[in-house]
Design goal:
The structure holds 2 protein chains of 2 kinds.
Chain A (H helix, E strand, L loop, with lengths): L2 E4 L4 E4 L4 E5 L13 H9 L7 E7 L7 E7 L5 E6 L10
Antiparallel strand pairs in A: 1-2, 3-4, 4-5, 5-6
Chain B lengths: L13 E10 L2 E7 L3 H7 L6 E2 L6 E2 L12 E4 L7 E5 L9 E5 L11 H8 L7 H6 L6 H12 L13 E13 L3 H12 L4 E4 L15 E2 L2 E2 H13 L4 E4 L2 E7 L3 E7 L15 E13 L3 E3 L12 E3 H11 L6 E6 L4 H10 L3 E7 L7 H8 L4 E3 L1 E8 L3 E8 L12 E4 L2 E5 L2 E3 L2 H5 L5 E3 L4 E3 L7 E3 L9 H18 L39 E3 L4 E2 H9 L5 H8 L12 H12 L3 H4 L13 H5 L16 H6 L3 E5 L2 E6 L7 H14 L1 E5 L4 E6 L3 H8 L12 E7 L5 E11 L2 E6 L4 H15 L6 E4 L4 E7 L3 H8 L14 E6 L2 E6 L8 E7 L3 H12 L4 E3 L2 H10 L41 H4 L4 E8 L11 E2 L13 E9 L4 E9 L8 E5 L5 E7 L14
Parallel strand pairs in B: 1-7, 8-9, 8-15, 9-12, 15-28, 17-24, 18-19, 18-24, 19-20, 33-43
Antiparallel strand pairs in B: 1-2, 3-4, 5-6, 5-7, 10-11, 13-14, 14-15, 16-25, 21-22, 22-23, 26-27, 29-30, 31-32, 33-39, 34-37, 34-38, 35-36, 36-37, 39-42, 40-41, 41-42, 44-47, 44-49, 45-46, 46-47, 48-49
Helix pairs in contact in B: 5-6, 5-11, 7-8, 8-9, 12-14, 18-23, 21-22
Classes of the chains: A mainly beta, B alpha+beta.
Chain lengths: 94, 1005
């Protein structure tokens, strides 16, 4: 079970309080109407599944209810960093 | 019965406290301090079970968690049955009732063993796959017989009377194992001021020190153990957990400890005591001081009762005062094996021989044996054992220097016990749980913990450090390292002085050769619990299984409840030899949680019975119960389903409720609908983005129905939202969708549109909602309020803040039945008051309570959808015929707009929601029935859609249904067929889903 630092609460809490919400940084296209079906399909359905570093969206569901991002190693389950929505990761895959 | 194998003195048992226990219906005596296994050995019980596949008699082989054979069923009553108990870990208590789990009709005379003897060569690995897979139709029959024959214990048939618990713990240093390394680490960490938890699976701390005669500072080691335990007990921040197995080592230094609080006291926990407790520990640093398990050697007939691992023999003598036999032969590849012979001789029984596979050995233990005049046979091995229910003799022969073949003639020796040592396997299980791959060490002749990402240290036997002095030093160092890591100063600890014994090099040997090739020699067992032999592993390799993981799965090696603690390394060695590879090249399988089997009770803790799942009740629940409601679970809510009167069937009740609403007035508890309070200057804009329809012009005091779609354009929820103020709305959601919708709003606000000033709060539980609906509802409401509720003053789709039954209420004039309706929302704790007042006043109007089923029928008469029943995530608003609820005028591309314009969403012939009217008005199509155009078409018939909602409508006098039909909206009046599982076919006509009051006049009066 992960031990997760909530950047909003500024505390470590148990994974039970959080929900994973999939890949982070999937921005909604600003002009959806201008997207081709292929582009919209990629926005909707296509996600990375890397072995190694992954940027994920999490929510402190049973806590402050705020969303935040996490950089996590999918192999070792190490959490490399957490950062707020709108911020960019500092740990990135080479 | 006498305890013929009990010594008159020595050991850690209390001879003044005799205990009686039962094994297979017979009574025996033991002492306080015994394990069930030591007491069985004291009583000379040789056979403790029959083997899984060959049904061979099996005896106790080890003395701890690694025991593969003595897996018993415990329990004095049906309710207290516990399977899978290792006798070596179960402390004896007075009145303990145990039974062997394998063997029919008994372990002593077993019918299946004839199968094993005759069929031995006919049951190779993969036997079950190869033999019983065909014909598949008979598998159920085979399985029943196989399972009965195998027998691995059974679950109780009655509820467990005991209570279980779980507790969250936090510490600086979690120390696993309280042997010399663990105790040294704990003492160091505790003196340094750290918060420490130290857990050990045994009943007392000390680990291997309890089993040996070694001294520390010249005194028995147990005295040092006692002093350390006494000191640890003085620290407030040290938690000592004996009888506690650290069963899992999970991510981010989270460990689960299974503490057996009362298993050693009685069959049922004493009053007000918890039987077992699960500790959920989050540790800053972890010290694994889990020690090592001794490996037995693999030789012919090595499973005959009396064959044991040598360390266990020493432990039974030194710790329990039990000598498990009379005439001992030791076979060893290393110096440690000699200790069993020394202890055996000290106990006054006969050591027949020490058979050392090495040519030369000069270690201190070897010299001690030599000085005692024990018969040492070098460069040789016990190649075969004689006996069936007990060892009667052994065959000894010289072997080659590499141990690959027999080179000398065979000598037979008489003996009843064979103790073997093939070296030690570090207990790396917990380290493996973290995903760390173990690393082979030629020096240690075993796998050591690999690299880990956890904040983990290891000390002592787990590192292949088997001498006490080294274990103490490593424990001390781990303690200091942990202190430094958590930011504490180093501690002052003076370690006791241990005897240092000179060791000679061990031989790397696992599988003892026989005169015959392995495939023809008597069985040489590798994994006792799953009956995997060396020949079986060789055969698996010959059949092409090269990966050790495949060999494991094909032979079932390591699949027992012991996870192959004794056998796995030997099995890998056998496979490596067969594949002509080294052990590191062959690799190893790794271990998963749990380290030892754990009871379901401990996993469940308090989350059982009433506390299994939270239940949600509305403020009016008590009234519903008192009025005979049948309930339906909707999410966690308990909702009234219908209110049958005495003698009424469900359908009769529904008919009565439906008629009452259409002809008089009905009342529904609608409190469970999700309610989300939305505020902020951009609230209106936000609603426009998450709903498909327009919200810009909704005036204060008005309500509007909205459809919510995903980005894919598919409907996922719906509900009515009311405008409370210019910047204030309350949104309702489906009962089951409330949490999802709430998170949906938050995720869009927080991650996509943080610039919008809008706030959400879930207020579902703040309100109680009584919906009154039917032609008499206005008259009823008028009686409870001074407000003018006329159609002119309180219009359809208005909401009003008024006083009802003396309390403030938000009343929404909205309708889910198509009748004149008012949804009266009051502060939750006024709910029952208003509900009762409505009933008092409503009696004369024929007020009838109804539940969810009548609600469903009434809305279906009107063709209103239920999100989640008539939608399944694959339908967009146009599929539902709800294009009227989609705005194409909104400037912002709201959620779902782009999605529902994808090519697949706009194509012809999509499944569309229509009404269905059966040709025979009495027939009700089952929900889920599949539509076909030609019921005589060959199977598989092309399927045109399915039924989503279907009811008997008493108001209409015929059945009604809604369902999807390909291109259905253009097929009005056409006929479709629903072939049912029972062979009949229902014929139906496609029609509008609005069966009742198609112009919607009744709600607008």
């Amino acid at each position: 079970m992960f031990h997760i630092y909530c950047p909003h609460c500024a505390e470590y809490r148990e994974e039970e309080e959080f929900h994973a919400k999939g890949q982070a940084h999937i921005a909604r296209p600003l002009d959806p109407e201008a997207c081709s079906d292929k582009e919209w399909g990629e926005y909707l359905f296509f996600r990375k599944n890397p072995r190694g570093l992954h940027h994920e969206l999490w929510v402190h569901a049973a806590g402050c209810r705020k969303f935040f991002n996490m950089t996590r190693d999918t192999q070792t389950y190490e959490i490399k960093e957490v950062y707020k929505i709108g911020e960019q990761p500092s740990v990135v895959a080479e | 019965m006498t305890q013929q194998n009990r010594l008159t003195s020595g050991g850690r048992i209390d001879r003044s406290k005799p205990l009686t226990f039962t094994y297979n219906g017979k009574q025996y005596k033991g002492y306080k301090g015994d394990t069930l296994a030591s007491a069985m050995l004291a009583n000379g019980i040789n056979v403790v079970g029959r083997s899984f596949k060959y049904s061979r008699p099996r005896g106790i082989i080890a003395c701890g968690a690694e025991e593969p054979n003595a897996v018993l069923q415990l329990g004095a009553t049906e309710a207290t049955q516990v399977p899978n108990v290792r006798a070596t870990q179960q402390e004896l208590f007075d009145g303990l009732v145990s039974a062997s789990t394998n063997g029919w009709p008994s372990v002593e005379t077993d019918v299946m063993s004839i199968m094993g003897k005759v069929g031995g060569s006919m049951m190779p690995p993969g036997f079950y796959y190869k033999t019983f897979m065909f014909p598949q139709s008979l598998w159920d029959t085979y399985e029943t017989i196989i399972r009965k024959a195998a027998g691995l214990g059974r679950s109780p048939l009655e509820n467990d009377p005991d209570r279980y618990d779980s507790i969250n713990q936090h510490c600086d240093v979690m120390i696993v194992g309280a042997g010399p390394a663990g105790l040294a680490a704990a003492l160091t960490a505790a003196r340094g001021g750290a918060r420490v938890i130290i857990a050990d699976e045994q009943n007392e701390f000390g680990g291997s020190l309890l089993n040996s005669k070694e001294t520390l500072d010249g005194k028995p080691a147990a005295e040092w153990v006692r002093a350390v335990v006494e000191e640890l007990a003085t620290y407030d921040d040290v938690l000592m957990l004996p009888r506690s197995t650290v069963n899992g080592y999970h991510d981010h230094n989270f460990l689960t400890i299974h503490e057996r609080c009362t298993d050693h006291l009685a069959d049922i926990a004493p009053v007000n005591q918890v039987r077992q407790r699960m500790h959920r520990v989050r540790a800053k640093w972890v010290v694994l001081a889990t020690g090592a398990h001794e490996r037995p050697l693999v030789y012919a007939n090595n499973d005959v009762p009396g064959c044991m691992v040598s360390g266990a023999v020493s432990a039974y003598i030194n710790r329990y005062g039990v000598v498990p036999g009379n005439e001992l032969v030791v076979m060893t590849t290393n110096d440690y094996g000699y200790q069993a012979a020394l202890d055996w001789a000290d106990a006054g029984r006969k050591v027949v021989a020490i058979v050392d596979t090495r040519e030369t050995a000069v270690g201190d233990r070897v010299e001690a044996a030599r000085k005692r005049g024990l018969n040492i046979i070098s460069g040789s091995a016990v190649i075969e054992v004689q006996g069936s229910k007990r060892v009667s003799g052994v065959s000894v022969a010289a072997i080659s220097a590499s141990g690959s073949k027999v080179i000398g003639s065979v000598t037979k020796l008489k003996a009843d016990t064979v103790a073997t040592s093939g070296g030690w396997s570090p207990v790396i299980h917990l380290s493996c749980h973290t995903g760390s791959r173990p690393i082979w060490s030629d020096e240690v002749v075993g796998f050591l913990p690999g690299k880990t990402v956890q904040k983990q240290l290891t000390a002592g036997g787990i590192n292949g450090q088997y001498e006490i002095a080294a274990a103490l030093r490593e424990g001390f160092e781990a303690g200091q390292k942990a202190l430094a890591e958590v930011g504490l100063a180093a501690a002052e600890v003076v370690l006791p002085k241990a005897e240092t014994l000179k060791l000679s090099a061990p031989m790397s040997l696992f599988h003892i050769p026989h005169l015959k090739p392995t495939s023809q020699a008597p069985k040489q067992f590798v994994d006792y619990q799953t009956d995997v032999t060396a020949a079986g592993i060789e055969l698996a390799c010959r059949e092409g299984f090269e990966s050790i993981e495949h060999v494991k799965r094909y032979t079932a090696m390591g699949f027992g409840t012991d996870q192959g603690k004794l056998g796995n390394i030997n099995g890998m060695a056998v496979a490596a030899k067969a594949l002509n590879k080294s052990i590191p090249e062959t690799g190893t399988t790794i271990f998963r949680p749990n380290y030892t089997p754990i009871s379901f009770g401990a996993i469940a803790g308090r989350n059982c019975g009433e506390l299994f799942d939270p239940k949600r009740y509305t403020a009016m629940h008590k009234w519903h119960v008192e009025h005979g409601a049948k309930f339906e679970d909707v999410g966690q809510w308990k909702r009234p389903w219908y209110f049958p009167k005495a003698g009424e069937s469900m359908q009769q009740a529904l008919n009565r409720e439906c008629l009452a609403v259409r002809n008089a007035v009905g009342i529904l508890d609608a409190s469970t609908l999700g309610k989300i309070d939305i505020q902020g200057k951009d609230a209106r804009e936000f609603l426009g983005r998450v709903y498909t329809n327009a919200w810009a012009k909704l005036a204060v005091g008005k309500c509007r129905y909205g459809l919510m779609c995903g980005e894919d354009g598919m409907v996922f929820d719906d509900g009515v939202t009311a405008c409370l103020g210019e910047n204030h709305f309350v949104m309702t959601t489906t009962t089951g969708g409330a949490a999802r919708v709430y998170e949906w709003l938050e995720i869009y606000h927080q991650t996509e549109w943080p610039e919008l000033e809008v706030y959400f709060n879930t207020v579902t539980d703040h309100w109680s909602t009584a919906t009154i609906t039917g032609p008499n509802s206005r008259k009823l409401l008028a009686e409870l309020t001074d407000y003018d509720v006329s159609n002119e003053n309180f219009k359809y789709m208005d909401w009003k803040q008024i006083t009802v039954a003396g309390v403030p209420a938000r009343v929404f004039r909205i309708s889910f039945t198509g009748e004149l309706s008012f949804e009266i929302n009051v502060q939750a704790n006024y709910g029952m008051h208003v509900w009762e007042k409505l009933h008092e006043a409503g009696e004369k109007y024929g007020l009838t309570p109804y539940g969810t089923e009548t609600m469903h029928i009434l809305r279906a008469e009107k063709g209103f959808i239920i999100a989640g029943q008539d939608t399944d995530g694959s339908v967009h608003p146009y599929d539902l015929g709800m294009g009227w609820c989609v705005s194409n005028q909104k400037p912002f591309s709201y959620i779902g707009k782009r999605g529902m314009n994808r090519a697949d969403c706009t194509r012809e012939n999509r499944k569309q929601l229509v009404g269905l009217k059966t040709k025979d008005p009495k027939q009700v199509i089952p929900e889920g029935a599949q539509a076909v155009l030609d019921p005589k078409a060959p199977i598989p018939m092309p399927m045109e859609g399915h039924v989503t909602s279907s009811y008997w409508s008493e108001n209409l006098g015929h059945s009604i249904a809604m369902g999807f039909i390909k291109g259905g909206l253009d097929k009005m009046g056409e006929t479709v067929y629903y072939p049912l599982a029972n062979g009949t076919v229902i014929e139906a006509e496609i029609c509008s889903p609005i069966f009742f009051d198609p112009k919607g006049e009744r709600q607008n009066v």
